Amino acid sequence: MDHITISLRNLLRNYKRTMLTLSVLVLGIVGMLVYAGYIDFSMWGYREETISGGLGHLRVYHSGYNTRGGESYLDYLMENEKDVYRELIRNKGIREITSELEINGLVSNGNTSEMTMSRGYDTDSVSVIRNSFTLKEGSFVTNGGTYQIALGVLLAEKLDARVGSYLTYMTTTRHGALNAIDLEVVGILETGLKEYDERLSVMSIETAKLLLDVEAADKFIVMLENTDDVPAIAKEFKKKTAALDIEVKTWDELAQFYNQVKAMNESYFLITQMIILVIVAFSIINTMRMVIYERMREIGTLRAIGMTKTGMVTMFMTEGLWLGIFAVIFGIAAAHLVAWIINVSGGIYISPPPGQSNGYHAMIRPDMIRYFQAAAIVIGSTIVGSLVPAIRAAGLKIDESLRYI
Amino acid sequence: MKTINNFEEAAANELLVNENHSEINTTDNLASSACLIRLSGVHKRYQLGKTTVNALNGVSFSINRGEFTAIAGPSGSGKTTILNLIGCIDDPTSGTVLVKGKNHQFMKDREASIFRNQTLGYIFQNFNLIPVLSVYENIEYPLRIGKIKIDRHTKEKIYSLIEDVGLSSYTKQRPDKLSGGQRQRVAVARALVCDPDIVMADEPTANLDHNTGLEILNLMQKLNRRLGTTFVISTHSEMIIEKSRRVIRVLDGKIESDTGEDYEYQNKTDYDTVDSERATCSA
Ligand SMILES: Nc1ncnc2c1ncn2[C@@H]1O[C@H](COP(=O)(O)OP(=O)(O)OP(=O)(O)O)[C@@H](O)[C@H]1O
Ligand SMILES: [Mg+2]
User: Is the whole-model pTM more than 0.90?
Assistant: First the structure.
């Protein structure tokens, strides 16, 4: 008759209360895990959106572009872009590689001029770029479409431009000379963000090179088949291109906003975890306190027949621990089931977030690490929660607990 | 020179005693003598809020190995208090209680627990069996607590104890399926399983009818005679008082009368390993 069997039997002895306590713990775990699964789903969705919405999985620059580039980024263009491309394309798991050249300038309709931040991209492989906007009118800049431009919707409004209009694009070349080209408006774009829609325009990389009087792109945007491959491919690629004087950034190094949102969500989740931890600890404390009052004379008897204080603490701790273990088993199973039901039934409808017009169906994304976390938290708090009453039970005066009626 | 040596020796002895308070080796060498229990000038006060209850007011007596002693007295007279002191589950406010030469007051929890486990057995008015354990498990449990290996030999011993108390066909039963008398039999077996020197029984028959009480009493007396275990029983029951060889009557925390130590019985037994000139408590 060791502590393990005795404590199990003791739990069964008052199985109604055990069930009640367990259901509190199980509810806590389910709440925690379903919430985590929802956060993980939205973060996962947001991650994929961020990546496919223009950021890409990897970005490759001439070294120094990110640290020293800034205003003079044109001094850090990828002069050896053909060699880099050749190395890049050799890797497995790559879906698409796009080159891009950023350019800032003024667009004018003759009467008004507006500042614009433009992206010149490789019109042959553009899915990454195309996903960053929705096309409101017209078309994207086409292959070989030199002298074409697509404008952000608010920028187009300010310039009173529509598909078919001509605008003059003015900028300074790499060497400081003024340059201007007339471009045909082929499309109107929308990003959903006012700041972008007011400033953004896109053109082919050829046009951008022409305007800036340069021969190279400033970056490659690499899309992979699978986001989880990023660390491995990035590492491999860094190794292979060590001689090429380039720098490789992964999406998560660049997605500042994503990281902020993620950090914020994690802190919310931490708060829920804390709350659940406290609930678990208190319900265990409460249960164990009741148990101790109920078994007062039993405690006295056990101490009288020779159980040490340590033995007493171990006995009650084992009982609390069992509660924790069962709660974890049932809790994780229940959470998994709830997640499955939610997912199978098509998710929970979430109304549109501010600034966006479409709601979406949230799914629950189960994650092993979260399960382990939940298990650790619950077991940890049952240990803490049963320690307090266990020490109290061990400290009871034997004669008094024997007299207790 | 010699006196200095003696002095040093005495000082060394004192140090020894100080180091190991629980083992008080007095000149009459209690630990190895037939005198098992000695209370001297024991007072016990309980604080109930602002009022002080004087449960024991200067109690002194000794019990020898092998005695069967009833502690009798009206309710509230201090019987349970005396038993608790002998049973090393409570300490006197003043005075000393020595059990097998040891003073519980100076023991650490671990030592006291082991001492209780190995030296003392307890029988309670309410049986106090562990409800989640079967008859066999209840009896075995003190051995487990005492970390004694349960082998074939110990198992045989447990079964023979179960037979002694007449519960052979109930070994797998949980206590709630047993009658009061049967429960108390389990308690008797449990109290004896670790071969204690002393078994304390606090009103062991109070919750039983007359005949069942008598059975339990006979059982205890049989085991006392056969195993030589010392029994100290607190009771209201005239039946127990009549049948006990020694009766200590308490009233208001004082000894009212004591039929005296039971030397005669000791000399008749063959269990006691102490020599014929053994020191009894009053020697
Ligand atoms: N823990 C305690 N706190 C306060 N008073 C106590 C405590 N334990 C015992 N007493 C008091 O000490 C006195 C002696 O109590 P004790 O239990 O030893 O009597 P008893 O002879 O065993 O009585 P009974 O026959 O009713 O069991 C009583 O007045 C009792 O109220
Ligand atoms: Mg009493």
Answer: no
